[in-house]
Amino acid sequence: MAERNLARQAERQLELHGSYDSLHFEGTWWSSAALADRASRLAAGLAGLGVRPGDRVVVVMANCPEVLITYQAAWRAGVVVTPVLFLVTEDELRHVLADSGAVAVVTTAEFLPKVNAAVGCVAGVRFVLAPGAEDDPAAPVPVLDFAEVSATEPGAIADRGDDDLAALLYTGGTTGRSKGVPLTHANLLWCGSASQQASSGEGLTRTLLPLPLAHAYGLLVTCTGLHQREPHRTILMRWFDPAGWLELVQSHKVHRSTLVPSMIQMLLAQPLEEWDLSALVAVSSGASPLPAESRREFEARVESVTVYEGYGCTESGSLISTNPLGMRRAGSVGRPVAGCEVSIRDEAGRPLPSGHDGEICVRSPGVMSGYWRAPEVTESALADGWLHTGDIGHLDADGYLYVVDRKKDLIIRGGFNVFPRDVEDVLMDHPAVAMAGVVGRPDPRLGEEVMAFVSLRPGAHATADDLIEHAKARLAANKYPREVRIVPQIPLTSVGKLDRKRLRAAVRAE
């Protein structure tokens, strides 16, 4: 039982590859042995503070080596990692702390005020851990220094098996309060292994990681690293900024990077041709659909690179399908990874043939067993033993998956279905458009009317009428937007996805 867990897998990786410079962060290289040693000592320190196997520990940090050390320490101690994006509000953090039943929080100094404010309203949290922290008598619970808690002798790995929880992640809460998604050691071990098999490329060993490690996509990349067949070097960014990303790709001769579509669109506003990006072979794009025009422009301007789209959700460990290296099908999110089944279903739950749009349903060893303490929601999400993703898409004759849109984002205009992504892709084809977001606006005659928010490229000019005419020439009469609003920037969620919730709120407020 004790052999099948993430901490044991990390030990096997260290034994296989030995110690080498594996992580670069803000000018400093960390060796794999140093990271493992710090994790082992922190695990013993957590146990010494009374944290027990199965306890939940919330991690609220921007990217840094301490995030990875904490994850590994938690798994060694048998603790359940509960990652939270540092951009969450105090109220959102308070909800996660209370709902998860967390016993501790690991954070950094800049987020201590928010963490202390949230902890003060939640029973059960016993201490807060932060690098360089000093105990604050006014804090609601003791604030301990990360280094001091790690200054202990390494301990043994706690016995945890396949079905024991390794992580508890919280969804974005677009339909109410965020829900906990429990993932076991078996879930994450399978996801890491399947991801490595699907995306492996011999000699592509230098990776730039700007994604938040607290997100499901970032956690998948972390778990993929536990299965590499040759030593890999990761350059970690605290957070994404386009100029910094370009500098790191050039200076470290990076082979591959993981991005989300909004990051690619920000890079397109940079002078890409002025940088030496010739070592960059593959960019993986996920978390939300990538506009075709953005993909084409990025590949045209960075001639060495191919963009590979993939697909997953928090409930599936962020892994469902991917385009294997050298087998990319443009516009598709790839084929289901080995061991994952995808079925396209109609409204009655009946399987649809290839080429027909329906809800994407998934079955794999990476899928959660159910939402945390939410049996009613679990029953509908996992009906008939399949995860119902809420996404609309289809499979082609060769088994490649195409994601059309979110089911809940569908606009019904005069009885006709309009998928926002179809409209957004057309607007993105206009040379002046940097980003577009489309939502339904209540309409007394048609039920809903198509409305678009658009941000323009720096120095570009287009009027709302220009963009309406552009869309009208390329879309059916029931699809093109009757109103286009040009805004300074399109709102994004904390993980870089288009924030339709805020767009809808703006429409409702009027």
From TrEMBL:
Q: Which Pfam families match?
A: AMP-binding, AMP-binding_C
PROSITE patterns reported in the protein's UniProt record: AMP_BINDING
Q: Where is the AMP-binding enzyme C-terminal domain?
A: 423-497
**InterPro entries this protein is in?**
AMP-bd_C, AMP-bd_C_sf, AMP-binding_CS, AMP-dep_synth/lig_dom, ANL_N_sf
Q: List residues of the AMP-dependent synthetase/ligase domain.
A: 11-372
What does the similarity note say? Belongs to the ATP-dependent AMP-binding enzyme family.
What's the protein name? AMP-binding protein
The species this protein was found in: Streptomyces humicola
